Amino acid sequence: MHRIVSLLPSATEIVCALGFEEEMVGRSHECDHPSSVLRLPVLTSPKFNPEGTSAEVNDRVKRILAEALAVYRVDAGRLRELAPDVIVTQSQCDVCAVSMRDVEDAVAQWVGGMEPPQIVSLAPYRLHDIAADMERVAEALGVAARGRELAHRMSGRMRAIEERVRLAQERPGVACIEWIDPLMAAGNWMPELVAMAGGRNLFGEAGIHSPWMKLEELLARAEQIDVIITMPCGFDLERTAQEVSLLAKHPEWTRLKAVRDDRVYMADGNQFFNRPGPRIAESLEILAEIVHPELFPPIHEGSGWRRA
Length: 308
Fold this sequence. Notes:
Elements: E1 4-6, H1 9-17, E2 24-27, E3 44-46, H2 54-66, E4 72-74, H3 76-82, E5 86-90, H4 100-108, E6 118-122, H5 127-140, H6 144-165, E7 173-179, E8 184-185, H7 190-196, E9 200-201, H8 215-220, E10 227-230, H9 237-248, H10 257-260, E11 264-267, H11 269-273, H12 280-291, E12 305-307
Parallel strand pairs: 1-2, 1-5, 5-6, 7-9, 7-10, 10-11
Antiparallel strand pairs: 3-4, 7-8, 11-12
């Protein structure tokens, strides 16, 4: 039996998909899927108020980073009490979740001859990294074959969508927006997902952190943008709807082809696109429904996406 702590929502989903939920003893404040993990002790908290507009949240985080401080707290005392033998965290983004450094600092405080836990740090930048991380977590838990099978099932679902997309008559230009104020395009694995869903990704580069952008960059390619999808990191559909309304108030917003054609959508970036775990396959399904509604029935409409 293991004693597992996951400090990353996607890692929690991986651990549970591998069949180890009952061996989890702690989680981060953002780990909420499956809902049964909500019973676990929470070991992290943000040092900023996560409520408010995207501009307000961005300003708070920037102030913390300007002081060279960690964005999140780790409850080192509670972590020690739980005595995990495996901790899963991440080293990709200090803003999105507790970092590897935060965990190492917390564990460094342990004294009294305690056996240090194995720390598994995930850093997915592309789709193949997500599958590889599943296998790394599985290997750390002693079930390497189970990890390969989980990655294989996920990849199979995604390949089936990619095959169906081959029937599409066109590949619409897609702008994925990961933050609204200031604007940020979606990078990392998102450009690959857009391509698999039968679209042409117009902003952001695969394997590269999501880039900041200006509205003028959208306007410069106004006639190429057939579809706009907003998926702010950490925001659900309701919160995203409030932010999109701010974009719609811009006097030049209607210059964009996607706006004129009523092809502006909101997606749940918190539950899907910004969680590089098993549900990245569902994220692809959502994209395919949006980009090619003629090929894919809207089974995720209302829960994973809706029109803006």
